[in-house]
Amino acid sequence: MNKFNNAFLAHYLGNSQESSRPIPRRRVSSNPCLPERLPTTGFLQREAETVAPKAILKQLRRSPTPSPPDSPEPEAEETSGHQRRPSLTSLASSAESSIRSFGSSLIQRREDKSQSSWKEPQAMLRAVERKDIMYLMEIRDRSFHLLVRMSGGITPLLHAMRLGQSHRDVAVILLGAFSRWVNHVEDDQMENPRTKMVLKALRANLKLAIDYGLTKTQGSDLTASFLQTLIMSQGESWVRGQSENVSLALRSGTEAKPVQTADSAVRKFATRELGKADLIATLADYIANATADLLMMGAWSLASEVLQLDQIPTYYFARDDRVYKAFVERLDEHKNAIQFKLTKRLKWQLRVLRSVLEGRTTTYRNKVELLAGELDEGEGV
């Protein structure tokens, strides 16, 4: 066995360990900092509600016309803040329920009166004075025209208003009956001379109520009902003319500002008929609804010229959501012809209108703002 002399290596290792001492590192100075605070959930939600619709509309410029759904989705439950048409119907129903609960204070309908023996009532003003709500509602269902007819130089509505605060509920019931009748007139009745006479009488009643000052306590519902009735009774030529103006603006693209054109037309009409700036300010929702109706009618007017189809009837205007339903039904029914025969710009405009105006999750004022941002201020097609 070979033996090695490791004395030199051991001596070297021993000396190196003694001479190599650790060199202390420079101490790092403490400089703490806090990360930036994240946005609140509310802020993120608002940003999403603002940005998401705009992103969807931007995507529509490059998307083909979508096919209609196989089965219609169930309609969302209506909320008071997002109803399409401001109406007194719900307010009147609530007031009617409250009044009925005080049965002891009301004069009930005679039990011996039967359907066969019904005659047109003659004591309207007395029924208003007695607050006979059941009697008035029976007249509403059987002989509505008596609610708007003059009797002794005065109408039931004006009589209730003149009786003061004690009969305010009766006035609300009558106004609710007016709005209910307007929204339930059948399409085939619009050309009936009797229907036109009732509409003119309704117009006089509502204008009378506005001038008398009931609108100060009822908000915009009464004013909107007046404009709705006015357009139905005498506004056919106005609706047709303004929808044609809007269709010309849509044909020209964003430079013609079609949304602004529709909005200005509705505001001008309301100002001319009401003549009161404070009333116009309370009509923001109604004006937005009417603006959307004009845009849909104008867009379909362009499509109907190419496809040789009927236009949306003018008497649909300002009646719940009839224009929107008719608009969507026509888009679904003629989707193939729309895809192959219409211009790229018009197909895009139809998609934008349908996408923005569907649903009840936002107000029509917000929807019109979205439409203006896309159809008036956007990049266009």
Automatic annotation (TrEMBL):
It comes from the Eukaryota. Residues 87-105 have a biased composition (Low complexity). Residues 16-120 are annotated as: Disordered. This is Uncharacterized protein. It comes from Mycena rosella.
